[in-house]
């Protein structure tokens, strides 16, 4: 079982992530960890902090001579912005909010849409900075680092993952536009919108610029795609083993994500069955996915049936709300005086949808890697690779008997 745990505050010295369950013998180096962290920092509409941080993952344990050794992998990502926040983060170690320094540091006006109030009440915090520093999407840098480990494992087993932005604010891809894996994968690493339709770029930038000029924020949507996923991951036998459900939870856990769809997503509720279900046809050995001898003319199901992968590309979409910190703040309540007061203002992005798509890739990688280890798990990558090959051979024997169709 692959598990990961993140720790660290947004403006603390560092973020730390521990990834447990990675088999021995996986090649893992800076070239595997750095690119995704760099992509997460990009995106039109990002805030000033991205000009400060240069995220790098430092391996603290679990890797030796460029290979995993079977023990938990610990990664650290230092926060360069820590030097600008040491005073703020240290003075509120004194809980006496009556002290001048502590009062300057304390956050008492919760932002609508953020975890400030709900979690502040849950954990009985008088200074909401105790909440917002952990709830911040800065935490996703640790997720992306963990996802890079999972991506390296999947890549060795023939599975690739990519993403693309499907909409920002009112500017959307056409509903009937199916973006192929190759189209999304061809996007440049430094593309600041991650949209395959270049004709929409000007409109997307205009939507972000308009929101920024108004002191507002804007959300959007993205799709994550995995190619090379074998059939049979997950299970129909219990509700919590359905892999599409586990994947939906993983993407929904990303900060500001408010909806997740698999394949056609919400559209399935408004179409007849004949326009939703993917027909199963005999075909050549290659098939249309990873199930030999089987062709699917469509992939409306997004690679899942009954909570189990069916060999087609896994396709999951997510919708991100506008970020909760507005430069023109919404109304709130000061929890000290209980008077009406504008919400607190923290340094923030105007739009983070392109970055969220990279985080979505990381979460998909983590869920798929866990499912692969669940089905083919062993102590070493050599043994897992052999198990995958044997499973593929078994499928070919069942679906492509002697004298196969042309």
What can you see in these coordinates?
The protein is α+β, with helices and mostly antiparallel strands and 406 residues long. The chain has one domain (3-391): Chorismate synthase, AroC fold, CATH 3.60.150. The protein is built from eleven helices and 17 strands. The chain has a five-stranded antiparallel beta sheet with strand order 8-7-9-15-10. Strands 1-2-6-3 form a four-stranded antiparallel beta sheet, with helices on one face. α6 crosses α10 (353-376) and α9 (243-252) runs antiparallel to α10 (353-376). The longest helix is centred in the C-terminal third of the chain and has 24 residues, at 353-376. The protein is globular, with a radius of gyration of 23 Å. 41% of the residues are buried. The model is unreliable at 97-104 (pLDDT under 50).
Short description:
The protein has 406 residues and is an alpha+beta fold. It contains eleven helices and 17 strands. The strands form six sheets. Strands 8-7-9-15-10 form a five-stranded antiparallel sheet.
What is the count of distinct domains? 1
Strand content: 15-25%
Query: How far apart, in Å, are the first and last alpha carbons?
Result: 40 Å
What is the structural class?
alpha+beta
Count the beta strands: 17
**Low-confidence segments, ≥5 residues, pLDDT <50?**
97-104
Give the CATH level 1 class: Alpha Beta
**CATH topology term:** Chorismate synthase, AroC fold
Please summarize the sheet with the most strands. Answer: 5 strands, antiparallel
Overall morphology: globular
Output the CATH homologous superfamily. Chorismate synthase AroC
Please give the count of helices.
11
Mean pLDDT: 91
For the record, the CATH architecture stands as 4-Layer Sandwich
Give the proportion of residues in helices.
Answer: 25-40%
Describe the strand arrangement of the main beta sheet, using strand numbers: 8-7-9-15-10
* SSE string: EEHEEEEHHHHHEEHHEHEEEEEEEEHH
